[in-house]
């Protein structure tokens, strides 16, 4: 069975950065990716908030640059397969892949990211990037001065509505219950905006309308059964966000939503396992913070390996 110093799970911004840092410090590294280099940035039409690209950069272009950066690095190998299990203890982990092969490693860096829960409405996937979005911070600016919808009743939905209120013309806030689960001050601030925010409580989106781009949402009232079609150019969906952790040991400490808890140096509750990027329990999930976590996790793993080697 092959043995490496570090096994990195995922080639999103966190995993790519961790791989660069660890390989450049001379550790033997294997990076496993189940799909393609880039992670969630491949779902992003354009990134306008990543430093160094004042005109913005398309998600797939940044992903290509990430992949190019990993090419030809000494000490680095890549494997195209999903990790299905991580077992063992500090210094002696066994990682199993979907193709049934295994690798021994001394440290594991979990950079497998997170994924948004889908609304589950017809055409949602087809219109993602064409008006359906899960990230107001990322995509809100494309809809400056336009009417949009926001779906959800938790802090994320209301926080993002407050953010969008400075950008868009009108927000249709759609929530399936009669009260929000979010902080009361958020709902109060939105209510104080008058016509700018239209509340659709006890309601859910049942249709996404439009040809190539979203043009309207169909909203059904769960109490009265009434149905209306509201013209919007975007719908921002906040019905939950979940970490990708199915293959991790149960012993790894997580928060109430299942995100992995780390200290500031990306160490998890299991010595030798580090976590970086969106999979972590943290405030801000963006490319820049994932890359920063990846660099920190790599440095912490390097220190751990040095201590292990005595
Ligand atoms: C639509 C959208 C728009 C966004 N826009 C912006 C923006 O404009 N600016 C910004 O800064 N951020 C934006 N973000 C957020 C940003 O993309 C994420 O914060 C960032 O990609 C997180 O990086 P990560 O490396 O932690 O995880 P991810 O990007 O999720 O990468 C994780 C990788 O791990 C792989 N993986 C998962 N499980 C396994 C496994 N078992 N085995 C092998 N591989 C596995 C996945 O395939 C994936 O490639 C956006 C996100 C979305 C969804």
Chain-wise SSE layout:
Layout lengths: L2 E7 L3 H12 L4 E5 L12 E2 L9 E2 H12 L5 E5 L2 E7 L2 E6 L4 E9 L3 E3 L7 H4 L4 E2 L2 H4 L7 E5 L3 H11 L4 E5 L9 H8 L5 E4 L2 E7 L6 E6 L5 E5 L2 E4 L3 E3 L29 E3 L11 H23 L1
Parallel strand pairs: 1-2, 1-8, 2-5, 8-19, 10-17, 11-12, 11-17, 12-13
Antiparallel strand pairs: 3-4, 6-7, 7-8, 9-18, 14-15, 15-16
Helix pairs in contact: 1-2, 1-7, 5-6
Bound molecules: flavin-adenine dinucleotide (FAD).
Q: In percent, how helical is the residue content?
A: 10-25%
Question: What's the average pLDDT?
Answer: 95
Number of domains: 2
Uncertain residue ranges = none
Bound molecules: flavin-adenine dinucleotide
* CATH architecture group name of the largest domain: 3-Layer(bba) Sandwich
Report the order of strands and helices: EHEEEHEEEEEHEHEHEHEEEEEEEH
Q: Helical region count?
A: 7
Largest sheet entry: 7 strands, mixed
Share of β-strand residues: 25-35%
Top CATH class of the largest domain: Alpha Beta
Shape by Cα distribution: elongated
Distance between the termini: 24 Å
Helix/strand-derived category reads alpha/beta
Question: How big is the Rg?
Answer: 21 Å
Q: What is the fold-level CATH name, i.e. the topology of the largest domain? A: FAD/NAD(P)-binding domain
The CATH superfamily of the largest domain turns out to be FAD/NAD(P)-binding domain
